Amino acid sequence: MSENTINPQDYRLHEGDTGSADYQVAVLTKRIIELTEHLKIHKKDFASRRGLLSMVANRRKLLDYLKKQSPERYQKCLTGLGLRR
Q1: Per-residue b/e over 21-40, b at no fewer than 16 CB within 10 Å?
Q2: Closest CA to 62 of 85, 46, 39
Q3: Which of 11, 33, 56, 82 has the largest CB neighbor count within 10 A?
Q4: How far is the C-alpha of 7 from the C-alpha of 30, rounded, in Å?
Q5: pLDDT tens, 13-51?
Q6: Organism's domain of life (predicted)?
Q7: Looking at the domain assignment, is residue 38 inside a domain?
Q8: In the 8-state DSSP scheme, what is residue 10?
Q9: DSSP letter string over 21-66?
Q10: How many CA atoms lie within 13 Å of 72's alpha carbon, on the beta-carbon side?
């Protein structure tokens, strides 16, 4: 779980920001990594797997939105979170 060093606070646009796409992507990425580790141990936990797929789809939508609105913030998210695209 060494990759779980993502700090969503680094992706806030201002103090108290919890709704920006950058912040939401960071929070989702952190949760996705945690759930992936859980599923490595509990291979038959299909309810959690469904939740994981839902989170991945939601993150994908947020990243698509961010790419359209602000390409530089999109690139910052990709490099900072270590996402491939």
Answers
A1: bbbbbbbbbbbbbebbeeee
A2: 85
A3: 11
A4: 8
A5: 999 999 999 999 999 999 999 999 999 999 999 999 999
A6: Bacteria
A7: yes
A8: G
A9: HHHHHHHHHHHHHHHHHHHHH-TT-HHHHHHHHHHHHHHHHHHHHH
A10: 0
